Amino acid sequence: MSIQAQITGWGAYVPQRIVTNDDLSKIVDTNDEWIVSRTGISERHFASEEESTASLATEAALQALQVAGLNPVELDLVIVASSSPEHFFPATACLVQDRIGANKAGAYDLLAACSGFVFALDVAAQAIRSGSIRSAVVIGAETLTRFLDWTDRNTCVLFGDGAGAFVLQASDQPGGVLASAIHSDGSGGELLILPSPGSRHPMNIQALEARLQYVQMNGREVFRFATRALGQVVQESIAKAGLKLEDIQWIIPHQANMRILEAAAKNLKVPMDRFVINVDRYGNTSTASIPIAVVEAVQDGRIRPGDKVVFVGFGAGLTWGAVTAQWSGPLAPPRRHAPTPKLIRLLAGLRSGLLRLLRRLDAVVWGRMQNWGQKGPPGDDYLP
Ligand SMILES: CC(C)(COP(=O)(O)OP(=O)(O)OC[C@H]1O[C@@H](n2cnc3c(N)ncnc32)[C@H](O)[C@@H]1OP(=O)(O)O)[C@@H](O)C(=O)NCCC(=O)NCCS
User: Fold this and answer.
1) What residues make up the domain containing 352?
2) Are 265 and 349 within one domain?
3) To test ligand 1's pocket by mutation, which of 36, 185, 223, 319 has the most ligand atoms within 8 angstroms of CB?
4) How many domains does the chain divide into?
5) Looking at the structure, do residues 348 and 255 belong to the same domain, yes or no?
6) Whose CA is nearest to atom 7 of ligand 1?
């Protein structure tokens, strides 16, 4: 029997602060009627000053692990897909790995913009099915509102912050991730871009004056691309799974814009009520949007074990991809004395603090302290 990659846990976390279209109309020349009619978005969540991409990702991952009943020390892999990572490096995934106490897991970030969650799901599932690992947590996490130009009404009304995560585990049971299809077209790279900082445009006064540190978008071209790509890649991944569109109970798309989803549904000839949609309440949360939508649909009973589902993403790159899966659930019934997310956070924090202390003591003992002393930037919390 071949090894399957089952989705055994799921979690989502959105910051508390809700920002409505009316709130935005106080800072930029826009209005609720325009935003709702062109995008379907009514409100979105903004991360607080204390929150960051790694902290949102950690909350979503801990919830997903709890649903799966999986102890973080058993995890083999942590992937964070993000368009707004904590830093260039270290990878956000490494910070999450430390905060959840996934001691033996490898961790890395994956950048495929809004398609990132689907791309990450594809690689994690392949690693499990190949037998190379037994478990993974795949996270989409964003604080994109930190990279928006609040003088550009074309972009700043579209995005929101949040995180979502799936746990994947090896199993002999049929189901889980069935097939995937991913694509890229770098010739459209400039259509949706965050130019600086980067090798091409390092952070300097010229870059700042040109406002290159903010998301830039050609909305019309992205719209055209997205409506075509979505339907094509959904069909492709369903066909690779040996299924037909009629076999699929739910399509869970990247929540970019209601009009894109309506156009794609029309192309596919699938009624809108087979799409899971929540863009009205969260805006475009990039890599986080698919798992946040899935968690809501599982919690309210729409997605049930056995359902065949398609996750479909599209975005900057250009990138687009879809994963067809059979929804399952935890491999084992919940453990009575499973550690809570709070306890895991506490123990992981103690372990991390101890490791830092030991590293410092070792440096003192062996006379390497002259190289130490470099502090992270203000507000950074990975130096105690
Ligand atoms: C961004 C988007 C909503 C704009 O809608 P559109 O119908 O293409 O609008 P246009 O760009 O043609 O602009 C129409 C007018 O609305 C104005 N406008 C743009 N943003 C506005 C806003 N937030 N509030 C009010 N007016 C706005 C424009 O300035 C333009 O005015 P003008 O005719 O006086 O120049 C649409 O192109 C879109 O959804 N694109 C895809 C974006 C996306 O999902 N990106 C992420 C993919 S992962």
Assistant:
1) 341-368
2) no
3) 223
4) 2
5) no
6) 38
Pick from 124, 141, 47: nearest CA to 85? 141
Q: What angle do CA 334, 57, 320 make, to 5 degrees?
A: 105
Q: Evaluate if pTM is beyond 0.90.
A: yes
Does residue 348 sit in the same domain as residue 293? no
Q: Which two tokens stand for residue 108?
A: 């890395």
**Residues near ligand 1 with C-beta < 6 Å?**
30, 34-35, 38-39, 114, 153-154, 157-158, 217, 219-220, 222-223, 226, 256-257, 260, 284, 315
Q: Which atom of ligand 1 is nearest to the CA of 256?
A: 44
Q: 319 and 348: one domain?
A: no
Those residues whose C-beta lies under 8 Å from the C-beta of residue 136, and which sit 6 or more positions away, are 75, 76, 77, 78, 79, 124, 127, 128, 167, 168
Kindly indicate the confidence band of residue 380, based on its pLDDT and cuts at 50, 70 and 90: low
Nearest Cα residue to atom 35 of ligand 1? 154
In tens, the pLDDT along 210-255 reads 999 999 999 999 999 999 999 999 999 999 999 999 999 999 999 9
Q: Are residues 108 and 132 in the same domain?
A: yes
